[in-house]
Design a protein that fits this description.
The chain is α+β, with helices and mostly antiparallel strands and about 110 residues long. The protein has one domain: Protein of unknown function DUF952 (ADP-ribosylation fold), CATH 3.20.170.20. The chain is built from three helices and seven strands; from the N terminus they run βααββαββββ. The strands form two sheets. The protein has a four-stranded antiparallel sheet with strand order 3-1-4-7. The radius of gyration is 13 Å and the shape is globular. About 25% of the residues are buried.
C-alpha cells in the first residue's frame, strides 16, 4: 500500500541533500512524520496546505517502513499512518509536484502508480 507525505519543495531538497527527512515543523512538534493514504491525502491537502504552491507529493510503500510505521486514529477517528523516526529519501518510490489548479485546489497525479 502506498502512503503519501505532502512536503514543501525546499524542505524536501534539504532532506535529499542531508540524506534524511526528519519531518516538517508539525511533524517535529508531534513526534512523528504525518502520512496519508490515497483516500485521505486530498483532504489533508485541503485542510493543511490550502492555497500553498511549491509542494511535492512523496510516495512511500508502507510495508517498507517496518515497525516504525503505526496506524493511529486521527481526523474523524480514521486511522492515519504515522512514522516514528526519520525517513530516508532512498526509501521513497516517487516524488512528484503537487501544483494548484485554476480553482485553487491541488491537482493530484495518479495515486495508484
Amino acid at each position: 500500500m502506498l502512503i503519501f507525505k505532502i512536503c514543501p519543495v525546499a524542505l524536501w531538497r534539504e532532506a535529499e541533500a542531508k540524506g534524511l527527512f526528519e519531518g516538517a515543523p508539525v511533524d517535529l512538534a508531534d513526534g512523528f512524520i504525518h502520512f496519508s493514504t490515497a483516500e485521505q491525502v486530498a483532504e489533508t491537502a485541503a485542510k493543511h496546505f490550502a492555497g500553498l504552491s511549491d509542494l511535492l507529493l512523496v510516495s512511500v510503500e508502507a510495508d517498507a517502513l517496518g515497525d516504525a510505521l503505526r496506524w493511529e486514529a486521527s481526523r474523524g477517528g480514521a486511522l492515519f499512518p504515522h512514522l516514528y523516526g526519520p525517513l530516508s529519501p532512498s526509501s521513497v518510490l516517487r516524488v512528484r509536484p503537487l501544483p494548484l489548479g485554476p480553482d485553487g485546489r491541488h491537482v493530484f497525479p495518479d495515486l495508484s502508480a
